[in-house]
Design a protein that fits this description.
repeat, transport, about 10% strand, cell membrane, ion transport, alpha/beta, Leucine rich repeat containing 38b, eight-stranded mixed β-sheet, 13 strands
């Protein structure tokens, strides 16, 4: 309201100034400038949602406004949308369709529990996305589509986030910074990180990692890419499966997972099962063939003996 009053006052001043200046023939060229300036100020005040602030024509700041849903009447040419510190529970799947110029979206500290796949894939220019400090429980495949322009993604401080699909970040070829710290992750498929060719920084500290066999591949990747961790592997801990004791990754090595090397994978088990079934089928068919052959031979032998006896008589 104060901003609207300031704009109205400014316009009023400009109008009075305009009337005075038009009376002076030597400054008539200022007429066009004043008209354009008045129009720009009026447009700025008109396009900005009433409950938000608009520090510039391409930024809408609705942070800390107690919103329970996304604001209406957002300018279509917006580039920065700040919605932090509200109570927004969801993002409509078609919300970003009209905002093709959006490059910065801040939704941290809201009440988001899930994001429908494809919701964020419609923004082709999005560079920064903050979904931290929400109630997300999982990041499924297709959440971000192929937002190739995305450079920084914040997903930290989601206390219920326990599952990240292996293909959750598929297509984010420009992503350089990924934050997954202080969530509820006990394991993470290393393929989710290997699909990010431009990754420079990743934060994984503060999660309840479990150092079991499922952690082996991730541990190996972390050791090889420790330079991408802000605090190195020293800042990451995991619990031992035997006694639950927390240890730093610096106290572990690949030898700590030596027993996991002999563990059969699902593929190995399927091969063994299929091989067993195949051998059983072949054995049954072979037995049937041999039994049939023996039976035919016996019948042929009896027939031959009968013919010989008839000939002798």
């Amino acid at each position: 309201m104060e901003e609207c009053n300031e704009i109205t006052l400014c316009l009023s001043c400009l109008n009075h100034t305009f009337i005075l200046l038009t009376m002076l023939p030597c400054v008539c060229w200022l007429h066009t400038i004043l008209v354009l300036l008045s129009s720009a100020l009026w447009t700025l005040g008109e396009n900005c949602p009433a409950i938000c602030l608009c520090p510039d024509p391409h930024t809408v700041d609705c942070s800390g406004r107690g919103l329970t849903r996304l604001p209406e009447e957002i300018p279509l040419d917006i580039r920065r949308l700040l919605l932090a510190d509200n109570w927004i529970p969801r993002i409509p799947s078609d919300f970003l369709v009209l905002y093709s110029d959006l490059v910065y979206l801040d939704l941290r500290n809201n009440s988001l529990s899930h994001i429908e796949p494809g919701t964020l894939s419609t923004s082709s220019r999005l560079v920064f996305l903050d979904l931290g400090s929400n109630n997300l429980t999982e990041i499924p495949k297709g959440t971000f589509g192929e937002t190739r322009s995305l450079i920084k993604l914040r997903l930290g401080n989601n206390p219920y986030l326990s599952n990240v699909n292996e293909d959750a970040f598929l297509g984010l070829t420009s992503l350089r910074e990924l934050e997954l710290e202080r969530n509820a992750l006990s394991t993470l498929k290393v393929g989710a990180l290997k699909q990010l060719p431009s990754l420079r920084v990743v934060r994984l500290e503060g999660n309840p990692w479990v150092c079991n066999c499922n952690f082996t591949n991730l541990f190996e990747w972390l050791m090889e890419n420790s330079h991408k961790l802000p605090n190195g592997v020293e800042g990451i801990e995991c619990s031992l499966p035997m006694d639950g004791r927390q240890v730093s990754l610096t106290q572990l090595s690949m030898d700590s997972f030596r027993e996991c090397q002999a563990t059969l994978t699902l593929r190995d088990l399927l091969i063994i099962i299929f091989s067993g079934i195949s051998v059983s089928v072949v054995a049954i068919m072979t037995s049937f063939f041999l039994a049939s052959t023996v039976h035919c031979f016996q019948r042929w032998s009896k027939g031959t003996k009968g013919d010989e006896e008839e000939t002798e008589e």
